[in-house]
TrEMBL record, chain A:
TM stretches of this protein: 12-36, 76-95, 107-132, 144-163, 184-207, 240-266
Chain ranges of the ABC transmembrane type-1 domain: 72-259
Organism per entry: Ancylobacter mangrovi
Alphabetized UniProt keyword annotations: Cell membrane, Membrane, Transmembrane, Transmembrane helix, Transport
Matching PROSITE patterns: ABC_TM1
Protein name, as recorded: ABC transporter permease
Keyword tRNA-binding part of the UniProt annotation: no
Subcellular location: Cell membrane
Organism classification: Bacteria, Pseudomonadati, Pseudomonadota, Alphaproteobacteria, Hyphomicrobiales
Family: Belongs to the binding-protein-dependent transport system permease family. CysTW subfamily.
Gene Ontology annotations for the cellular component aspect, listed alphabetically: plasma membrane
Automatic annotation (TrEMBL), chain B:
N-terminal signal peptide: none
GO cellular component annotations of the record: plasma membrane
Organism: Ancylobacter mangrovi
Protein name: ABC transporter permease
GO biological process: transmembrane transport
Keyword Membrane: yes
Transmembrane segments: 21-40, 75-94, 106-130, 150-177, 256-281
Entry keywords, A to Z: Cell membrane, Membrane, Transmembrane, Transmembrane helix, Transport
Membrane topology: Multi-pass membrane protein
Plastid listed as a keyword: no
Length: 276, 287
């Protein structure tokens, strides 16, 4: 197909793709613009002047409802906890699945089930289980577990993709040279899969940071950021809502860019080392 | 000596242990709890252990339940069809029309990044676009296409479907792109050499080989839409119903056993749908 002249299909599909990207990013762009709405501006266009009024309002003034700072720090903590756990647990499970073991099949299907069971069921189930056991749900216990049911399947699937393409000859070579299993892992396997682990971490963090449905009944008495934002949608009628949306989206994007950049740096460094 | 011989055999069990424990505690146990509580009884202030079928009886015999389930299935079918068509062509474009791996990667990332940002914010972001005084209405009015703002754009079934397509199409793009990338390009060459038209190549070579990816994407979209409550609540402005939303309302009223019965029925329905998809398409090769 390559090396041929572009047919009309190419141009039609390019137009389609561009429309799709506009569809993905267009609405987000409108709230970015509207978050710079002037002090007397409303929730829709036209822009009534432009200002940083709503960012100031968000960051430095007491909100009538909600606790934006607290919610953000809870979401950040929870995201980091989920990220670390997802990386370690998916890596271990990924290593386990490279060999045959009793119960591998059921464990795999259970992990897939974790992905496709509707979020509200997980939320309700964990909420009820804590209730029945007489435990108080909290973002760092029940909420944390609920997030792991969402991030771990993604982590494991990424590890599968990694180890399917992993050439065991590297490990055999290390073993032949006298490396212990731990040395083989730490000096051969880990450096090779490190970029993918960053990818797993990225998924773990961002999926947790933005998770809503599974957190709803499991976060206890303190809201995470998405719950806080959802609460604001029913009460807040000023562009401060958009300012918050812009800030957290910029934060997510920054995390994504940092992760992708570090993956690219690792890849390039390795390519250079192989070449040199 | 025995230890060193035993260790390699024990290793996979130890490595799989954390995942197993987490899923047991936060997936298996909660679902078992839902099943258990679905047989419990409740009054206006608390729930208590019992073994009654009233929760199921009330759920199944209520006409509201049926219309809610039908409405949810309606969303599912429409969103599934739209995400499939859009997702397939986006994946097809990336896999077959983009020539360098770098461009492919960059364009794929552009499609993926919104997935890693907040769903709630992506929903909110439709308000200035679709609202009564939104961008779309203003544009169409200034162009003279319409003379008064269209009311159905926001807070309607239309808005629900639009937002779901917006949120969930990526779940179609990724698995289909993955299978398309694995199609041996020489098969397509061979089909062309044998005189197949572009359309025949699509229907006789590419689509059959893309079926596992289509199935995985479909499972994602179907289960996401079936369990959705937040998009329906937010984008319909509380005017439409879905099973998830019905459950969320029962939860808010502390009618946990009723919500649990609903959850069990929803889970069975979702599993049947997934089972149906897996019967049609064998996805094992993909995993």
């Amino acid at each position: 197909m390559n090396s041929e002249r572009r047919g009309p299909g190419f141009y039609v599909l390019t137009a389609f793709f561009v429309l799709f990207v506009l569809f993905l990013y267009g609405p987000l762009t409108t709230i970015f613009i509207l978050s710079f709405q002037g002090p007397n501006g409303g929730l829709t266009f036209p822009m009534n002047g432009s200002s940083l009024r709503w960012f100031e309002n968000l960051l430095f003034e007491q909100q009538a409802v909600g606790d934006f700072g607290g919610a953000f720090s809870r979401s950040l903590m929870l995201g980091l906890m989920t990220m670390a756990t997802t990386v370690v647990v998916s890596l271990l499970a990924g290593l386990a699945f490279r060999r045959r073991f009793l119960g591998a099949g059921p464990l795999f299907y259970l992990t897939i089930a974790s992905l496709i069971v509707p979020s509200i069921l997980i939320s309700l189930g964990i909420g009820l289980a804590f209730n029945v056991a007489g435990l108080e749900p909290a973002w760092y216990s029940s909420g944390f577990g609920a997030h792991l049911t969402w991030t771990l399947p993604f982590g494991l699937l990424i590890m599968f993709a990694v180890f399917n393409r992993f050439n065991p000859a590297y490990e055999e070579a290390a073993r032949d040279l006298g490396a212990s299993p731990w040395q083989t892992f730490a000096h051969v396997v880990l450096p090779i899969i490190l970029p993918s682990l960053i990818g797993v971490g990225l998924f773990g963090f961002t999926l947790s940071y933005d998770e809503f449905a599974r957190t709803l009944m499991t976060s206890g008495s303190f809201n995470t950021l998405p719950l806080e934002i959802y609460g604001m949608t029913t009460n807040v009628t000023t562009p401060v809502l958009y300012a918050l949306g812009t800030l957290t989206t910029v934060f997510s994007m920054a995390i994504i860019v940092v992760a992708l950049a570090s993956i690219a740096v690792l890849r390039r460094r390795r390519a250079r080392r192989v070449a040199g | 000596m025995t230890l060193s011989r035993l260790a390699p055999r024990l290793a996979p069990y130890l490595q799989a242990m954390p995942l197993t424990l987490i899923l047991a505690a936060f997936l298996v146990l909660p679902i078992a709890t839902i099943v258990m509580v679905s047989f419990w009884d409740y009054d206006s202030i608390r729930i208590f252990p019992a073994f009654v079928f009233t929760n199921y009886q009330e759920t199944i015999t209520s006409p509201v339940t049926w219309s809610t389930y039908i409405n949810t299935l309606k969303y599912t079918v429409i969103v599934w069809a739209l995400t499939l068509v859009i997702g397939f062509w986006v994946a097809y474009y990336l896999a077959f029309h983009i020539r360098t791996a770098t461009t492919q990667m960059v364009l794929f990332l552009i499609c993926t990044i919104p997935f890693l940002t907040s769903n709630i914010i992506r929903m909110i972001s439709w308000i200035p676009f679709l609202g009564r005084n939104g961008l779309l209405n203003q544009t169409m009015m200034s162009l003279g296409i319409i003379h008064q703002p269209l009311e159905f754009l926001l807070f309607s079934d239309f808005a629900v479907v639009l937002a779901m397509v917006h949120l969930y199409t990526l779940f179609m793009v990724t698995p289909i792109f993955n299978t398309l990338m694995r199609i041996d390009r020489s098969l397509i060459e061979a089909a062309r050499d044998a005189g197949a038209s572009a359309f025949q190549i699509l229907t006789n070579v590419i689509i059959p080989l893309a079926k596992p990816g289509i199935a995985i994407g479909s499972i994602f979209v179907v289960t996401l839409v079936m369990g959705d409550f937040i998009t329906v609540r937010f984008m319909s402005g509380g005017q439409s119903a879905s099973v998830g939303l019905m459950m969320a309302n029962q939860i808010a009223l502390l009618q946990y056993p009723a919500a649990a019965a609903n959850a069990v029925i929803l889970l069975i329905l979702v599993l049947l749908l997934v089972g149906g998809i897996l019967r049609i398409v064998n996805i094992r090769k993909e995993l």
